[in-house]
Design brief:
267 residues; alpha+beta; Beta-Lactamase; seven-stranded antiparallel β-sheet; 38% helix
Length: 267
């Protein structure tokens, strides 16, 4: 599905937003680009334990997630292991406890294409700790996230989007790779918007939540050519708190990007 850029970049400038919409599970989990699957194979073959992990207490939940994913994505034969799912599914996925008393701990999953974080560092942590490095996110959305998770029913799927800017179109941004970030005053055709389309549902078979992440890249010059997007993105960058810009790796490049975006059709 084509991203809704107007929704992703509202007129209000930067603020953390849930922006949930009803999800289409079959569309999100089904289908896969052979080139993307080949990329996933390559990374999993190089470091299988880095990209697929599960706590002992999460094995039952992970097995239920594999069964749900197999049925939803119409995979035959069904998935049997985390590493198999890493090779056959395009999205990454995480399974979390559905119990608010333990803070919805991250129990396991498959993350081949992380956005500058590592599964091994987050495993076993409650959701609030997983979100803790993101400046202002827990303060602005933490209560809303908790309320949403409490109401989430089995069978209901929801989607949302998250974005960042990158100096490359690499899918795997694991911290161990130490990929170079954006430099000052980059050209728009040398910057990519990294879009995470996220999916969330509650499993019926076990007390667990399933969270999916599908990554795509969009070159910034092409995106900025769309009606009103250059102006909206410039406003989002300008209004972004410095702590957030630092977290997103935008501090050095922000002023130059804003100037170039403002120059698109006089935006």
């Amino acid at each position: 599905m084509k991203p809704d850029w107007q929704r992703l970049f509202p007129e209000a400038g930067h603020r953390w937003q849930m922006h949930l919409r009803p999800g289409n599970a079959a569309r999100f989990w089904g289908g896969a680009d052979p080139a993307v699957l080949a990329e996933r194979h390559r990374w999993v073959d190089m470091a299988p334990e880095r990209h697929a992990q599960c706590l002992p207490e999460g094995r039952t939940m992970a097995a239920a997630a594999l069964a749900w994913l197999s049925e939803t994505a119409a995979l035959k034969p069904a998935l049997q292991t985390l590493q198999e799912s890493a090779r056959r599914l395009e999205p990454d996925w995480l399974v979390l406890s559905a119990d608010p008393a333990d803070g919805h701990r991250l129990l396991g999953g498959v993350v081949v294409f992380p956005s500058s974080w590592s599964l091994e560092a987050k495993l076993g942590r409650p959701l609030a700790e997983v979100h803790a490095p993101v400046p202002g996110l827990q303060e602005e959305l933490g209560r809303g996230i908790s309320a949403f998770l409490a109401r989430l029913e089995p069978g209901a799927g929801w989607e949302r989007d998250n974005w960042g800017l990158s100096a490359d179109a690499e899918l795997n941004h694991h911290p161990v790779r130490q990929l170079p970030g954006l430099e000052a005053d980059p050209l728009l055709d040398a910057v990519w918007l990294r879009l995470e389309t996220q999916f969330l549902t509650r499993l019926a078979a076990v007390p667990a939540l399933l969270f999916g992440i599908r990554v795509s890249h969009h070159r910034l010059d092409a995106l900025a050519a769309q009606d009103g997007i250059a102006r909206r993105l410039a406003e989002s960058l300008e209004s972004m708190p410095e702590a957030v810009a630092t977290y997103k790796g935008l501090s050095v490049a922000r002023a130059g990007l804003v100037r170039r975006l403002r120059g698109v059709d006089g935006s």
